[in-house]
Amino acid sequence: MINGELDDVSQVTFIEKGTYDYGFEINKKYIFCIRKPIGGIIGMYEVFFNRRCTFVVRADTDCIGYYIIKKDWIKLE
User: Fold this and answer.
1) Taking residues 12-40, what's their average pLDDT?
2) For labelling alongside 65, which of 19, 21, 42, 77 has CA 20 to 30 A away?
3) DSSP string of 19-46?
4) Is the dihedral of CA 13, 40, 24, 35 positive or negative?
5) pLDDT tens, position by position, 37-62
6) Which residues in 4-37 are b (16+ Cβ under 10 Å) and which e?
């Protein structure tokens, strides 16, 4: 699990290789509807606007990438 619903997002994650899924939680069950292909960015909106995560994000395959923590991301702005 990369991000849970209503979690405070503390980093922007850049995925170089691997796939991940977006979904939501209803009655303690996870439902994943969107599978993102290789590459992408997770958590940029939440960090930029200081919001909580609205979706559940999980890795479908092994993912390779890097991340920038919230404090450093704000310095880059």
Assistant:
1) 87
2) 77
3) -EEEEEEETTEEEEEEEE-S-EEESHHH
4) negative
5) 878 888 888 888 888 888 888 888 88
6) eeebebebbbebeebbbbbbeeeeeeeeeeeebe
